[in-house]
Amino acid sequence: MSVGGVKDEAEVRGHRKTYIGAMPGRIIFGMKEAKCNNPVFLLDEIDKISSDLRGDPASAMLEVLDPQQNNTFRDRYLEIPYDLSQVMFVTTANTLDTIPAPLLDRMEVITLSGYTYKEKEEIAKRYLIPREIEKNGLNNKLIKFTEDGIKAIIEGYTKEAGVRNLEREIGSVCRKVATDYSLNKSKKLRTISAKTVANYLGASKYEGSEMLEDSIVGVSTGLAWTQVGGTTLSIEVNLFSGKGNLTLTGKLGDVMQESAKTALSHVKTYAESYGIDKTLFDTKDFHIHVPEGATPKDGPSAGITIATAIVSALTNKAVSNQVAMTGEITLRGRVLAIGGLKEKALAAYSIGIRKVIIPRANLKDLEEIPEAIRSQITFIPVKELKEVLKEALV
User: Fold this and answer.
1) Span 128-150, pLDDT tens digits
2) Which of 51, 79, 320, 383 has its CA 20 to 30 A from that of 336?
3) Domain covering 216-392, topology
4) Contact in structure between 315 and 272 (CB atoms under 8 Å)
5) Catalytic choice (215, 301, 312, 350)
6) Is 48 a catalytic residue?
7) What homologous superfamily is domain 10-104 in, according to CATH?
8) DSSP state of 104
9) How many other C-beta atoms lie within 10 A of the C-beta of residue 113?
């Protein structure tokens, strides 16, 4: 049952028999279709349920999903209690933010992160490519996708947590190959490799992140989580003559702006312990920039990256281009835990970084990272900023 856009409570609880055209709710209708008392019942897109003057279906769902009371679920059409306690209810959602708190409280939450590149590659090989080849009247003697061709499609033409766009792009290639055969009548095998993908899909839509070529003063590499996976961020700090003012650019959200201000305040307070001349804070202005300027950025995990770039600019010591980092900072210099470590680690791995600084509190999350990648990255757990600087500054 798809509940996305359901606004009427009667969809869940049914109509009373006094109304013309009365019928039972979709829960009872689903039980009738299943023809058993203990089916698996999938409620799709539960986060998109909404309410209006016809009642609140989310509140009606409380009775359906609460194991303490759904053994006497009362549909208005049936007018007798119906036992739903044997049903296994599974719900799906893209975000938890829009699910009402009382409803969320009755659910066990299982969070699934996006697919890794390797997982997408395997899904494409085993399912998507054979399905699209068959759908377009082709066979393995007419079209062949190489491993580097699949990788080129994933990295250059899709940017998503799932594989929906990947399926579209593979379908697009298959349709063009089928059209090519029908027009040219040539039975020559078409090989889709990294070099030939552009002939079918045009120039690549997305350019992957690149590792910094050199270690640069005032530039550090951070890691960020996005809805389509992890990404790397270069954070740049410049100093110039002024009176200690701070300028922030790069379309930063409120949380990230506060991280930058906290990082600067911490470095100011503990300047001597980092070997920084305190007079610089009165004679220099600070400009912190996070490229690209048009992309909105926010989140509580850039604190240590910004602080490292500030210390680097003030001490004139470069930040190693072989190190990426993630973690929030406090005014006392403590490093706080972050989320999305798996995606961030994969982002660092994809651009060739093999040393990642993480908060010590996130050590428990290392098990989520695939063993093949975890074994090739050195994770450095830190508790304070001085430990970060020791590892990051050249």
Assistant:
1) 999 999 999 888 888 999 999 99
2) 320
3) Ribosomal Protein S5; domain 2 (3.30.230)
4) no
5) 301
6) no
7) P-loop containing nucleotide triphosphate hydrolases (3.40.50.300)
8) H
9) 15
